[in-house]
Write a structure and sequence with these properties.
Length: about 150
């Protein structure tokens, strides 16, 4: 089940974030997104009340940008990320977005496969985008809202 993320979810989300990312967002980063950023849309995926995945996107006018996506390693490869991403796409479409974008590490094969499968295309490389190891990012985009 997908639910809007709220502050009560943050300890569990941060726990997953620490496991999944080398440069993890901190509690305060998520708190800002939930309580202060007017453009943010964050969701969790629950199985029997346990948070097993989450996604964030910013929606500004006609553009949506995926900010984060993670699935508990014990629940990966069960289409949870696919469902979260499809949900984020639907929210973007409902808000009249025309284009969705994201950045992904060029070495992140799992995520690249996922995004390609859902119709995202690589349009650019952002050199040294990641601060921790200066890895490059692929910028990927997908037209949404029937804007094909
Ligand atoms: C990337 C991630 C979100 C995928 O989550 P998931 O729930 O396992 O993904 P799904 O089950 O929806 O997989 C959909 C598709 O993604 C690709 N994919 C997912 N896991 C993969 C893997 N281990 N190896 C290769 N491709 C993979 C496949 O194309 C898969 O389709 P298939 O199972 O029919 O072959 C998850 O691995 C994760 O949390 N990784 C760490 C955090 C991260 O990198 N987030 C993305 C930041 S940009």
């Amino acid at each position: 089940m997908i639910k809007e993320m709220n502050v009560e979810h943050l300890n569990d989300v941060c726990h997953l974030e620490d496991i999944l990312f080398t440069s993890a967002w901190q509690y305060k980063d998520f708190l800002y997104e939930l309580t202060e950023n007017p453009y943010s849309n964050y969701f969790v995926y629950l199985i029997d009340d346990k948070i097993v995945g989450y996604i964030g996107e910013w929606i500004t006018f006609e553009q949506a940008q995926i900010t984060t996506l993670g699935v508990d390693p014990q629940y990966q490869r069960q289409k949870i990320a696919t469902k979260l991403l499809e949900h984020a796409i639907k929210i973007a479409e409902d808000k009249q977005c025309e284009i969705m974008s994201l950045e992904v590490r060029i070495s992140n094969e799992k995520a690249l496969n996922l995004y390609k499968k859902l119709g995202f295309e690589i349009v650019n490389i952002r050199k040294g985008y990641y601060q921790d190891n200066h890895e490059d990012a692929f910028l990927m985009i997908k037209p949404v809202g029937g804007n094909l």
